[in-house]
Write a structure and sequence with these properties.
alpha/beta; Helicase, Ruva Protein, domain 3; two-stranded antiparallel ribbon; 38% helix
């Protein structure tokens, strides 16, 4: 979900800089951003849950930017990337000589984040032996560096993230239940990309333009079979996987056409009915692209919106979501002569 330019979010007249790197206009994403706006002005602890690649760090940054601490430090630490024997020192710091190799005093992430925000990614990987000390600093806002008996007071707002099931881990004794409750003050669950497929065309176009600029290449269109494959692939790696595949596609592109980077077995999962989605040109606006995709799908579905064969199902949307997008984009069924209906289509089948 990372970008260098602002993309409009549906329902807002202008995108606040808080959300400038968050791409999409689906109802699922808007719900997340509403929660960010609600919790950001407080100092409450936030637990961001979601699969790998859904953009948990971007949401943590958005919370910090929308908070009263936005002018202070935003410190982050991936708990899964630090060896277990060094994690305590990374979090709380150490004094010179505290252990073999401690040749100088070290300031920990909590001290670095004083008066600001600390983002702990993959908090579920913190070992049980270290969890009581983390619980204490969250409750008391104080800690001691390794090798020191002096207590340090800090004022830190904590945002934690995990792709693991902490409730299940707590039931198994792998994660302290009291620490989980302390972290879970305000939970935010990020949707997987397959749960907001309507954002995929916007993301594809955004990443295509971004990487085209970086590589000095001109990529002007997305073939229909490529866009269809993107929309129907399951995306186990979520937005991060999509970004990486679009980058690969831009590298492979020739003659201004985005190549399909998905493997043959992945492409075979695309329903044949979507193999004729029209080409998307980079000169089109994002609304034009959405409109083109929706109209093309409606035509293929004989302007049936709901039901298993309707356009909403083909696009991976709820019927109400598609209707709302149609109203916003000014899409309506073709007008037939009065009393005649749409040729070849029973009037009762047009579910708009």
């Amino acid at each position: 979900m990372e970008s260098n330019a602002a993309i409009p979010i549906a329902g807002l007249d202008q995108v606040e800089r808080t959300f400038e790197r968050i791409i999409g206009n689906s109802a699922a994403l808007e719900s997340v951003l509403d929660q960010v706006e609600q919790v950001a002005p407080t100092d409450s602890t936030v637990l961001i849950e979601g699969e790998t690649g859904t953009g948990k760090e971007l949401i943590a940054q958005a919370i910090h930017k929308a908070s009263q601490r936005c002018g202070r430090a935003f410190i982050k630490l991936n708990c899964a990337a630090i060896p277990l024997d060094l994690l305590e020192s990374e979090l709380f710091g150490h004094e010179k000589g505290a252990f073999t190799g401690a040749i100088a005093q070290k300031i920990g992430r909590f001290e670095m984040a004083d008066k600001g925000t600390l983002f702990l990614d993959e908090v579920g990987d913190i070992p049980p032996s270290l969890q009581p000390k983390l619980l204490r600093v969250l409750q008391e806002q104080e800690f001691e560096r390794l090798g020191s008996g002096r207590t340090h007071k800090v004022d830190v707002r904590l945002v934690a993230a995990t792709n693991r099931n902490l409730v299940r881990m707590a039931a198994r004794g792998q994660f302290r239940s009291d620490l989980y409750y302390r972290l879970n003050v305000f939970p935010i669950l990020l949707p997987a990309l397959r749960e907001r497929r309507e954002d995929i065309p916007v993301l594809v176009m955004h990443f295509m333009k971004m990487f085209s600029r970086r590589m000095g290449k001109t990529v002007e269109s997305v073939p229909p079979e490529t866009m269809a494959a993107f929309q129907w692939y399951s995306w186990p790696g979520n937005v991060r996987e999509l970004q990486n595949l679009v980058e690969r596609a831009v590298i492979l592109s020739r003659d201004g056409v985005l190549q399909n980077p998905l493997h043959k077995k992945q492409i075979e999962l695309v329903p044949p009915s979507l193999h004729h989605i029209r080409t998307f040109h980079s000169a089109m606006t994002l609304e034009d692209s959405d409109r083109a995709l929706i109209v093309e799908t409606l035509e293929q579905a004989r302007w049936i919106v709901g039901g298993p064969r309707g356009a909403a199902a083909k696009l991976g949307l709820k019927r109400t979501t598609l209707l709302a997008k149609m109203r916003r984009l000014g899409i309506s069924r073709p007008v037939a002569e009065e009393g005649v209906g749409i040729p070849g289509i029973p009037q009762d089948d047009v579910q708009i």
